């Protein structure tokens, strides 16, 4: 018997990875970070608040940084 994560947890993890990839690509292409609305639209989320959930997860994992109160301050962290 193997232990697997619930489907919603796997889906969240995949979406969070997609958000990280979108941010990295956007940052490379434009030279600055995307807005929450652009992230939501870019990865197929229904609302900017949904993007915020994934941004918070990435900040907690220290995969991105964000300066509160500064627009487009989302940056990927170099590995």
From TrEMBL:
InterPro entries (alphabetical): LexA_DNA-bd_dom, WH-like_DNA-bd_sf, WH_DNA-bd_sf
SUPFAM superfamilies in alphabetical order: Winged helix' DNA-binding domain
Pfam families, A to Z: LexA_DNA_bind
Annotated ranges, domain LexA repressor DNA-binding: 14-72
Domain of life: Bacteria
Name of the molecule in the record: LexA repressor DNA-binding domain-containing protein
Species name: Dactylosporangium fulvum
């Amino acid at each position: 018997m193997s232990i697997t994560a619930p489907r919603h947890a796997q889906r969240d993890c995949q979406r969070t990875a997609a958000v990280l990839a979108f941010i990295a690509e956007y940052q490379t292409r434009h030279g600055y970070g995307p807005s929450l609305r652009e992230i939501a639209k870019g990865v197929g989320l229904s609302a900017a608040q949904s993007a915020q959930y994934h941004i918070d997860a990435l900040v907690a994992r220290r995969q991105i940084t964000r300066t509160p109160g500064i627009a487009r301050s989302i940056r990927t962290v170099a590995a």
